[in-house]
Amino acid sequence: MFGGGGGLNPRKMEQMMKQMGIDVEDIEAEEVIIRTDEYDLVFDDAEVTKMDARGQETYQIIGSPEQVEAGAAGGAADAGSDTGSAIPDDDIELVATRAEVSEKKAREALAANDGDLAAAIADLE
After folding, report:
1. C or N: which end of the chain has fewer Cβ atoms within 10 Å?
2. Phi, psi of 53 (to 5 degrees)
3. At a CB cut-off of 8 Å and minimum separation 6, what does 114 contact?
4. Total tally of structural domains belonging to the chain
5. 25: domain CATH number?
6. Do 11 and 36 share a domain, yes or no?
7. Cβ-based burial of 84 (10 A; exposed 0-12, middle 13-18, buried ≥19)
8. Over the chain, what is the mean pLDDT?
9. Does pLDDT of 8 surpass 50?
10. Comparing C-alpha atoms, which of 98, 103, 104 is closest to residue 125?
């Protein structure tokens, strides 16, 4: 992209990117999972860099993934609930507050109503 041999000084590269409106941030990722219909790619201790170029975010993952069966990755993080990541925490908190129930009951009501806030609240009231 920049031509020439030998590469650029990292500090100079950072200055040039900043001048072009590109912000770079390292992300301390413990694990990265890429899900496909056929398999999951699991990167343990991957190096992740986020680049923001005028609102367009790009993520770069450096590491060697392990290929596992589709849907098999990530079970430890949300053990006991496969709706935990599908239902936003804000929705759970809203339903729990409005219906005056625990977050567990709110999560169950949202799951039973496919994430419909009004229906979950109505079921709990």
Report:
1. N
2. -110, 95
3. none
4. 2
5. 2.20.70
6. yes
7. middle
8. 82
9. yes
10. 98
> Which amino acid, one-letter code, is at 57?
E
Annotate 35-93 with DSSP letters as a single string. E-SSEEEEEES-EEEEEEETTEEEEEEES-PEEEETT-TTTTTTTT-SSTTTS-HHHHH
CA 74 to CA 41: how far, in whole Å? 11
Report if residue 58 sits inside a domain: yes
Considering the domain architecture, whether residues 46 and 94 belong to the same structural domain is answered as: no
Q: Residue 102 is part of which domain span? A: 78-125
Residue 61 has a pLDDT of: 92
pLDDT digits (tens, 9 = 90+) for 76-118: 444 344 444 468 888 888 999 999 998 888 888 888 888 888 9
67 and 14 both lie in a single domain:
yes
- d(CA 10, CA 2) in angstroms, rounded, equals 13
The structure tokens listed for 28 are 């301390």
Contacts of residue 117, Cβ cutoff 8 Å, sequence gap at least 6: 91, 94, 95, 110
Query: CA-CA distance, 90 to 56, in Å (whole number)?
Result: 25
The pLDDT > 70 percentage for the chain reads 85
- Cα-based angle 56, 62, 66 (whole degrees, multiple of 5): 120
